[in-house]
Amino acid sequence: MADDKNMVGDVYFPAPEVVSAAHISDYDKVHQAATEDLAGFWGKIAAENYEWYKPWETVLDDSNAPFYKWFVNAKVNIIHNALDRHMRTDTRNKAALIFEGEKGDTRVYTYQQLNHEVCKFASVLRSMGIDKGDRVTIYMGRIPELMIAMLACAKIGAMHSVVYGGFSTEALLGRIDDSKSKLLITCDGAWLRGSIIELKHIANEAVDRAGTIQSVICVKRTGHEVKMVSGRDYWYHDLMNLPVADPKAKTEVMDAEDPLFILYTSGTTGKPKAILHTHGGYMVWTSTTLKWVFDIKPEDVWWCAADPGWITGHSYIVYAPLVLGATSFMYEGAPTHPYPDRWWSLVAKYNITILYTAPTAIRGLMRFGRSWPGKHDLSSLRLLGSVGEPINPEAWKWYHRVIGQERCPIMDTWWQTETGGYMITPLPSVPLKPGSATRGFPGIQVDVVDEEGDPVAANEEGYLVIKAPWPGMLRTIFQDPDRYVQQYWSRFAEQGWYLPGDSAKKDEDGYIWVIGRIDDVIKVSGYRLGTAEIESALVSHAAVAEAACIGVPDPNEVKGNIIKAYCILRQGFEPSEKLSMALRDHVGHEMGPIAKPATVEFVDGLPKTRSGKIMRRILKARVMGQDEGDLSTLAD
Ligand code: WT7
Q: What is the structure's pLDDT at 269?
């Protein structure tokens, strides 16, 4: 096939009009300025673009690294910048959120209307005894009330802990217990592919077993009957109609370093980690990255097609667009419901200007062919984005040609729950190479190094490292500071570098090509799952004595990776196709459908180290027909 417009070989050069119109048209200059004086650079941005109740004394305190502090002793609340301050300008009459449900119902909230709802719900939460620093678990579908609940927590200084609506009882229960949440906010159900996900039912199972939940607030979404426990459960709409729901509620004054939220993510070993982000640094980082990478302008309609339950949604559906005073679009349901052109019809209907999604979604939609997007006018689009896993050049090119009509540069953004916002990413003015997230965001010092920390040669694989702190970095793992140090800062402790847990290559031009995880994290359809959680779900079944899981490339090339599970059965259980199916369903029930293994195999033993750790890399090498590598630590 011929090269796309503006492509020379494998490099895409943005059109001159794109470069000149962008917020940042000279990457090198800005990157250099940020590199030379990191604190000065961020101090200036923070002072010019946000309102602080009280300014900071120091921009960056690194005296207790890796427990970095940003905007030390400043007073702020992200809600003051996301909502309150917009009430004084024309922004208050602008659409903050445009929503469409899977069934086609629509809602638009102006900034003023959104603020009204957030204030009311914030005062409801206060009236229920939720205080600054308390944890509130939110388990909902993709509807505006999810956003309102998160914002209301932030407004009163409570920490939200959002659990993705695709997770199930065990996953929800574990996250409630670990965070010691007092309150759960959920809904009666969520629409997906024309049917109802029984969120309240799952929540009831979890809350019945959880130790700390005192009350449950339930939003009516589907209207079907659900079990409400008297004295514990309240309908959202009832509470919002009480006189206590004050539309002028005050925003809590927070320290810049006070926690904004925790969000659980899978790690190398053991239970999921509660990643903690703060009011000040996270606000500056997420909104500046969004503004520069997706070049947000007042007239844009920004669609981040992620779920608010993941960091992508936290940062780029909920917080950053509101801080920028932008208009966001949110869609509740599946991209292919009722037909594979649903997304494209939404782009045309709402004149979406920027679409941000994951490679797995692009590959999934690509399967249906170009005739589905071809039915719709996609000319409003000016920029596209990708996140979650490496995008294969084939999907990149389809996205570029068929959706972006060779007009829209693609921002391939590499980042993590831990980083709060974009870390390795192009800006619209940067030449692109399909499959590479290009270079560090201005001020981000990224490199690829070997075991000793020396840079590897061009195009050699090595550890991805980040060499300097940034305002949006996680501050700790909630209630587990040792694990924070161990997990992210111990591998290159001497150098003081952050270890994301990915392997990568760097090419001659300094462009980064992320390869994948080096730890026991499996990326399925861009979702991050820990082998430990899936394995413990398997072992919770009566038939299973021991289990190991690995991720291998999806043979159908949609999900990125699929999960393969290996189980040792307990005495009295025989391998069978039926049992294999039952175990897959069991994981689906315990963890959620995304964690369901594609295959479950029965084995007599698992490769282990002498200390008893399962060597998953050996299982993986066998499946992939690769060299098994160093076997010296293998027990037998
Ligand atoms: C892991 C983090 C942060 C948004 C969603 C994922 C992988 C993420 C890319 C990309 C290659 C990517 C990495 C990373 N990843 N974006 N553009 N290219 N890989 O957040 O669930 O915390 O997962 O996702 O492996 O470590 P997350």
A: 65
